[in-house]
Amino acid sequence: MTIDWQGVYPAATTQFTADQALDVEATVSHVETLIEAGVDGLVMLGTLGESMALTAAEKETILAATVEKAAGRVPVLTGVAECSTATACRFAEAAQEIGVDGLMVLPAMVYKSDSRETLAYFRAVAGASDLPIMCYNNPVTYGVDITPEMFAELADEPTLVAIKESSDDPRRLTDIVNRCGDRYVLFCGVDDLVLEAAMLGAVGWVAGLVNAFPHETMRLWRLAAAGQWAEARELYRWFTPVLHLDCDVKLVQYIKLAQAMTGLGTETVRAPRLPLVGDERQRVADIVQQARESRPSLAAE
Fold first, then answer.
1. Residue of 82 and 2 predicted with greater confidence
2. Prediction pTM value
3. By CB count within 10 A, which of 88, 90, 142, 271 is most buried?
4. In the CATH hierarchy, which fold is given to the domain comprising 7-300?
C-alpha cells in the first residue's frame, strides 16, 4: 500500500516466550492492539523489536505474520539493522518479497562509518529494493551521525523519503529544513521530545512507549497535530516521566516492563539483554505505576 508519511508509527516490540523463543502469536496480537488503538503505521524489527537478536529466518517470520495481520489497514515498515552492506541489501530485498510497505534503515551496525562510507551504505540499500525508506539518524545510540549536509547529498535518491530524527537535539529538525527544504518528511524518534519536534515541523512520530500506553500516545499526537498546544502540554507533562524511559540504553527492558504492567505484553527480552532486577526494576516500575494511577481523563477522549 502507499504510505501516508504522517502520524504515529509504533516501534513495536517483539514478544518472546519465557525461554526466549520467538512468540509470533503474541507479537501479532500486540500489533492488533496497536492497530485498534488507531496507529497510523507500524515499524517492526527496530531497536525495540530486538532485531539484532533475531535470526534472518525469525525476522522474515515476524514480517510475514505482521503483513498478514495488518491486512492493508496500516502500512508495515521494517527496520534494517545489519552489520554489512550486503546483508542489509539482501534483507531489503527479502522484505519487499514478503510484502512490507517500506523500510526504516539504520546505518550499518558495530562499525562506526565515516560520512563517505555512510552515504555509500544508504545509496546501496536504497538501490536494493523499490521500497520507500525512512532514514534513521540516531548518533547517540549508534555512533554515526547523518548530518543535514549528508541528507542534502542523498537527496537524489528517490526512495529516501523520510527521516526519523533521533539525535536528541530538536534544533536538528530546523537545520534539515533549512538545508534540504521540504525534500524529506520529518519524524520524531525521541519520545520525550515529541511535542518540541511537532512544533518544529515533524509530521510523524516513531513512538516507543506507545507499546504500553497506546491511547495516551495517540491522544497526545492528535492534540499536537491539531495545534491544541495547551491540552497537549498538560498531557505531555503527565506522560514525560514515562517517556524518559525511551532514552536509556536499557529502553527495551524499560518499555517491555511498562508493557507488562499495562497488560500488553511480557517483559521477556532475549539475551544478552536480561530482565530488570532489584532497585533498577523497582525504580522503573514506580514510574510506570505512578503514571497508571494518575492517568488524565482526557487521554481516553
1. 82
2. 0.95
3. 88
4. TIM Barrel (3.20.20)
